[in-house]
């Protein structure tokens, strides 16, 4: 794979191919191979780390491009879905006006019918008598109170802070 956004050594392109083949899931065997590859690479530690970070940036950039493309396609699909729904409504209006419930064409059978399920209620809430209202009670955990107790050193059998994991920032 040449001509990528950043020049990546052949050794790290092999690492890239391995990541792609594993669909991004790196098991212990893959991590051992990465370590072996890092150990085999010629050059100084900084060069190794630089190539490693270049690969990470390449994958991040590709992921962003793919995310953007997926968003673009999703928007187009939404537009198509809206257009088809509008055309169906227009067709239904026309069939109703012609008082036609069913039509056979060379490729399609068109039927006009009501939707299933419970019919939607249109309510005027300011006019609904009290007997039709029901009270509900909801409970939520007061996480801020629990945090304050933990911060003050109180041990709680039912709560503790999760360990923070280490992250890498590439600048």
Stretches with pLDDT under 50, minimum 5 residues: 1-7
Average pLDDT metric: 85
Tell me the distance between the termini: 25 Å
Could you spell the SSE succession in H and E letters?
HHHEEH
Give me the count of strands: 2
Radius of gyration: 30 Å
Helix content, binned percent: 40-55%
Continuous helix count:
4
Structural class category = mainly alpha
What fraction of residues sit in β-strands? Answer: under 5%
Could you give the order of strands across the largest sheet?
1-2
Main pleated-sheet profile: 2 strands, antiparallel
Net shape: flat
Protein architecture, described:
The protein is mostly helical and 171 residues long. The protein has a domain at 10-117. Helices cover 51% and strands 4% of the residues. It is built from 4 helices and 2 strands, in the order αααββα. Strands 1-2 form a two-stranded antiparallel ribbon. α1 (10-21) packs antiparallel against α2 (28-40). It is flat. The two termini are 25 Å apart. Mean pLDDT is 85; it is low at 1-7.
Overview in brief:
The protein has a domain of 108 residues. The chain contains four helices and two strands. The N terminus is likely disordered.
Topology (elements, then pairings):
Blueprint: H1 10-21, H2 28-40, H3 45-97, E1 102-104, E2 109-111, H4 143-151
Antiparallel strand pairs: 1-2
Helix pairs in contact: 1-2
